[in-house]
Amino acid sequence: MSWAGPDNFPATSLADNLDKKLLVILRDGRKIIGILRSFDQFANVVLEGALERITVGELYCDLPLGLYIIRGENVVLIGELDLEREELPSFMVRVSATEIKQAQKAEKDATELKGTMRKRMEFLDLD
Questions:
Q1: What is the DSSP code (8-state) at residue 59?
Q2: Do the beta carbons of residue 10 and residue 3 sit within 8 Å?
Q3: What is the per-residue pLDDT across 47-94, written as a single tens digit (0 to 9) for each?
Q4: E strands along the chain, which residues?
Q5: What is the tens place of the pLDDT at every residue in 90-114?
Q6: How far is the C-alpha of 87 from the C-alpha of 68, rounded, in Å?
Q7: How far is CA 32 from CA 25, 43, 84, 125, in A?
């Protein structure tokens, strides 16, 4: 990602990023990629050609969203993507939407099982 605006100073306004490809990370953890077309003083943004990038381990999928409006209160981070660099490491494998949803479910189930097992083991007090 490139943070430098004119004269290598960091960009201080979203206006510097109009018509550029951005990554927006939302409060719920989703990652949205698209071209910034508009914004307002509340950091509400409009992305054109937006897609949601879902990653699970070494798997990823890009779900097309089209024209996408994001309410500013849901934005955690906005960053410009460097078009000269490869967006993903070479070991990442692109899969279908169905496969990534299955991988997400399996990951969620494993996390819940781990939490359940931890609660069951608390009574042992292994310290």
A1: E
A2: yes
A3: 999 999 999 989 999 999 999 999 999 999 999 988 777 677 788 889
A4: 21-26, 31-39, 45-56, 59-70, 75-80, 93-94
A5: 888 899 999 999 998 999 888 888 7
A6: 21
A7: 6, 15, 19, 43
Closest residue by Cα to residue 1 from 27, 29, 26, 21: 21
- Provide the total of helices (H) and of strands (E) in the chain, helices listed first: 1, 6
- Res 125: pLDDT: 62
**Can you tell me the distance from the alpha carbon of 76 to that of 125, in angstroms, rounded to the nearest whole number?**
38
* Residue 72 contacts residue 105 (beta carbons within 8 Å): no
What does the block give as tokens for 97?
A: 């939407």
